[in-house]
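Design request, tokens follow.
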């Protein structure tokens, strides 16, 4: 990826770029439109993956055609790595942000953030012990899942 992202100015569903298709007479996904304009149609049953992880990017050099299974594995691996790193840091009470986790891992774009209540600014020792215990359980569960998935 030697070129920069080119972001679509229109935004459609789930944060993906959107453009008006004169052929279909409706808004369509900008990244799919860009790919198909340059490379032809995407084979049926395949996905178009943003290698840059930027949903609004329409630079076709940042995309590749993958199977749904490959696409799922790519995103599962990115989320698992980020969660492992992020939970470890949070459990140790360093209070880093998810943007810092992404930057440290070299992941551009967005990753899913954990849901729930925001963390308190200065957690109690009991809360830190609980977080550390939860993070350890989560890491063990992820490790078992990775071993099982191969």
């Amino acid at each position: 990826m030697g070129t920069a992202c080119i972001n679509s100015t229109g935004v459609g569903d789930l944060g993906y770029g959107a453009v008006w298709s004169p052929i279909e007479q409706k808004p369509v996904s900008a990244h799919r439109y860009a790919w198909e304009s340059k490379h032809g149609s995407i084979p049926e049953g395949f996905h178009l993956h943003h290698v840059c992880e930027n949903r609004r990017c329409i630079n076709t050099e940042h995309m590749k055609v993958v199977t749904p299974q490959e696409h799922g594995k790519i995103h599962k691996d990115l989320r698992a790595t980020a969660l492992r790193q992020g939970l470890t840091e949070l459990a140790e009470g360093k209070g880093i942000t998810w943007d810092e986790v992404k930057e440290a891992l070299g992941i551009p774009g967005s990753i899913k953030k954990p849901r729930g209540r925001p963390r308190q600014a200065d957690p109690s020792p009991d809360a830190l012990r609980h977080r550390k215990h939860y993070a350890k359980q989560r890491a063990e569960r992820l490790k078992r899942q990775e071993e099982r998935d191969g």
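Comment from the thread starter after seeing the answer: thanks! The beta strands are 18-21, 26-29, 47-50, 63-66.
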